[in-house]
Design a protein that fits this description.
The relative contact order is 0.08. The chain has a five-stranded mixed beta sheet with strand order 1-2-3-4-5. The chain is an alpha/beta fold. The chain is built from 15 helices and five strands.
């Protein structure tokens, strides 16, 4: 079967699905990815934290169910492994021993759940052990001597005395696994998902201007007051409130358009927050700012002319690399001018 070729395929080749991309992640990226996933599970965890590396005491990524600064806090542990093949018991016995030892030493409370996560998942042998807590405990004890040296400062951990009692009474049902494909399904809602895996932005909902509040919101006062002053600089009248524009059709119509543009830009900000890293919208704003700043700083015969010249230039701005170029409108570009005023980055008067 043959297919039409797209420009994307010609430029970048066949797209690699996320599950395959994960297999080629660095170990650091793998842990970052898991931390991002835990971080979006706001209904379960109040905070995510990545330990990773030497000295993590068996904790790669942690999800805190309760305040970590309070004694006996509740938490879940996510052990991140990144191998070419599915995990085997021999690859993780040391991780069981770390949790047993460090909870015995009261370094941290016993986790509510302890999950193994790996691109290739857990192999058959490990999966069977995780499904049977008694067999898991026996397997750990039988393989203890081969894996009990958990770090250079502690050395070999002997299974004896009070520690042996601790192990025998430990609840091994806390150990489990999570399939990577399930994590991917949830990670879609993280702002970094598209940056990591591509796939294109979702469709942007069209702004219904009828839903813009009729009254000026507290978050709009700065740019609104600046516009009123700009109108006054041309007409030589003092406009204190928007209602004063009712008899000035030119200014009233412009203000209506400016406010619609502002709310388009605010919608784009929210769209970005939900789909892309937080600095993406700021970068977009900065590109507009760079394109208009010379006109802002020029001398104009009145400030209303300045507003119109700046809006016109913003509307012509060509965004070269920011991913928002695919979904942005002229409304947004003009609206960003008023956002910049609202943020005191530029002024009309």
């Amino acid at each position: 079967m043959t297919y039409y070729k797209t420009s994307h395929q010609v430029n970048f080749g066949k797209r690699i699905i996320p599950l395959k991309m994960i297999e080629h992640m660095s170990f650091d990226d793998w842990e970052d990815f898991i931390e991002e996933w835990v971080d979006i599970k706001k209904t379960v965890y109040i905070e995510a934290e990545r330990f990773g590396g030497a000295g993590d005491k068996g904790r790669d990524v942690v999800g805190y169910v309760t305040d970590k600064n309070k004694q006996n806090y509740t938490w879940d542990c996510f052990q991140c492994k990144h191998y070419k093949n599915a995990l085997t018991p021999a690859q993780v016995y040391k991780e069981f021993i770390k949790i047993l030892y460090y909870t015995f030493k009261l370094e941290y409370p016993i986790p509510r759940k302890f999950y193994f996560i790996a691109p290739k998942g857990c192999g058959t042998s490990l999966s069977k052990l995780l499904q049977n807590p008694t067999e898991l405990k026996n397997a750990i004890v039988n393989n203890w001597d081969k894996h009990c040296e958990i770090d250079t400062t502690v050395g070999g951990i002997k299974l004896e005395g009070e520690f042996l009692k601790w192990v025998n009474n430990f609840d091994f049902s806390i150990f489990s696994k999570i399939h990577t494909k399930n994590i991917l399904k949830e990670h879609i809602s993280h702002p970094n998902h598209l940056i990591r895996f591509g796939g294109g932005l979702p469709e942007r909902e069209k702004l219904d201007t009828a839903n813009i509040p009729s009254s000026i919101q507290s978050s709009e006062t700065t740019y609104v007051n600046q516009l009123l002053s700009a109108y006054g600089s041309e007409s030589k009248e003092d406009y204190k409130n928007v209602i004063d524009l009712d008899s000035k059709e030119l200014y009233k119509n412009h203000f209506t358009r400016a406010r619609i543009s502002f709310h388009h830009a605010e919608q784009l900000r929210n769209f970005t927050r939900d789909n892309l890293p937080i600095d993406t919208f700021e970068d977009f704003q900065n590109e507009i700012l760079e394109g208009i700043i010379d006109i802002v700083e020029e001398i104009h015969s009145n400030n209303f002319i300045k507003v119109k010249e700046v809006e016109r230039e913003a509307g012509k701005a060509i965004i070269s690399s920011n991913p928002l170029k695919e979904v942005s409108l002229i409304y947004d570009k003009k609206g960003i001018c008023h956002q910049l005023v609202n943020d005191n980055k530029i002024k009309w008067t």
